[in-house]
Specification:
mainly beta, 9-stranded mixed sheet, globular, 428 residues
Length: 428
């Protein structure tokens, strides 16, 4: 039971702001329709046979690509993948998409050079073993939790049997079509009748002093952190209309932007928990989210976010001020301020009307310029520099492919999380 307690988040936490708006959707998560029987499993579900396969070695280094924006599809001709993957659709850049026979999405994934390994864009690295049963079953070794799972096409994903917990789980979907919750991953445990999480998808973050840090991935629409902060700008931020400016940053039609276009990344961490940077910062009257991204609005300020990845887009029009811009300008467009006392490090990122959303405590800030490029993925986190306490964080430049990590600690003694290293995927 100690493992379960270490993993579980009880239904009480569903009432908190964190879970009420966690990765991929708002509101509390409903209990799946299939109720547990006295045996702890939904009726009609048979506990699968245990798997007698050794724990596989860690997956080789791999950078999965995102599908192209055109999402041109063709049915995969491969006959080497387990029957569970029948009907998988090849997109582009080695990315596949799979729906279960009943329409449940398995989601997006890529095969590594050894096809026993897949990288699932929400669940992380999985080692695949064909169950070779009549149900089209498959075993997954989940590297994030070190658990063996089983699922099949007849009692289909997102239902998973977890051998370490001895329980059937329901892996909650995200609000973005075709995606599951991630960072953290949310499950319903039918055995204990409760909501729980497991470790985030992908390798864990590492300490600043690590000589061989492990990568987390940055790519469009892949949320980094838990949803806690409201999306969009505050009333004191940039809310349009077209042609108006905030701190020298103008709001223009999205189609007019792009004469210069660079990206950088911001990570927010409070008491060891990564908090997602909101989507639609710098978007006046944003349209509905589509595929995990906000791509429509009355106008877009030259500095903005499309999603909750932490990717900061900096664009301008011909003749406009060229990026990189400053942290101060990002915050002013957002309608927020950042302060830090150079002696005590006490400070805040504030501006929300709801005081519980403002981040207050002792603040440490790290920057890291990117390495790589020229055909290789950009990587940040290998050359971390802590910003001196005497430096006003509002003056930090937001350079291309740079990482800025802002940590807030409210605990005594301080709780400082390891600073992650990121690998940028695709064409970012």
């Amino acid at each position: 039971m100690s493992m379960r307690r270490s993993l579980a988040i009880t239904a009480l936490i569903m009432c908190s702001a964190l879970v009420a708006s966690c990765s991929g959707g708002g509101g509390s998560r409903p209990v799946p329709a299939e109720r547990a029987t006295n045996a702890g499993q939904p009726s009609g579900f048979a506990v699968p046979a245990s798997i007698s396969v050794a724990v596989p070695p860690s997956p080789p280094s791999f950078t999965p690509a995102r599908p192209s924006s055109t999402r041109r599809m063709s049915v995969s001709p491969s006959a080497t993948h387990p029957a569970f993957f029948a009907g998988e659709v090849a997109l582009s850049n080695g990315v596949y998409y799979l729906n279960m026979p009943n329409g449940n999405p398995f989601g997006y994934y890529s095969y590594l050079s050894d096809p026993h390994y897949i990288y699932h864009f929400d669940a992380g690295y999985e080692y695949v073993v064909d169950a070779s049963d009549a149900q089209g079953g498959v075993y997954f070794y989940d590297f994030a939790s070190s658990h063996w799972w089983y699922t099949n096409r007849q009692w289909p994903f997102p239902y998973l049997y977890d051998f370490s917990l001895g329980a059937l789980l329901y892996y909650y979907p995200a609000s973005a079509a075709g995606h599951s919750t991630s960072n953290p991953r949310y499950f319903y445990d039918f055995k204990d009748s409760q909501i729980m999480t497991m470790p985030i998808a992908g390798p864990a973050s590492v300490t600043v002093s690590s000589a061989t840090p492990t990568d987390l991935y940055i790519t469009n629409t892949y949320q980094v952190g838990a949803t806690l902060l409201p999306d969009g700008d505050t009333p004191s931020g940039g809310n349009g209309p077209i042609g108006t400016s905030v701190d020298g940053i103008r709001c223009d039609p999205h189609a007019a932007l792009g004469s210069i276009h660079i990206h950088m990344h911001v990570t927010l961490i409070k008491d060891g928990v990564t908090i997602a940077v909101p989507e639609a910062i710098g978007v006046a009257n944003p349209g509905p989210e589509a595929g995990g991204s906000i791509d429509n609005g009355d106008c877009f300020y030259w500095i903005h976010t499309h999603d909750r990845t932490g990717i900061i887009h900096q664009e301008s029009v011909q003749g406009g001020a060229s990026p990189p811009y400053l942290m101060r300008q990002l915050l002013h467009v957002w309608g927020m301020t950042i302060t830090r006392d150079p002696s005590s490090l006490q400070g805040s990122i504030a501006g929300f009307a709801d005081p519980t959303k403002n981040l207050r405590g002792r603040i440490r800030i790290f920057t890291s310029d990117a390495t790589g490029g020229g055909g290789s993925p950009y990587v940040t986190g290998t050359n971390l520099v802590e910003v001196p306490a005497t430096t006003d964080p509002a003056t930090l430049a937001l350079n291309a492919h740079q990482e800025i990590t802002i940590e807030i600690s409210t605990a005594t003694p301080d709780t400082w999380a390891p600073v992650p290293r990121y690998k940028w995927l695709g064409s970012l």
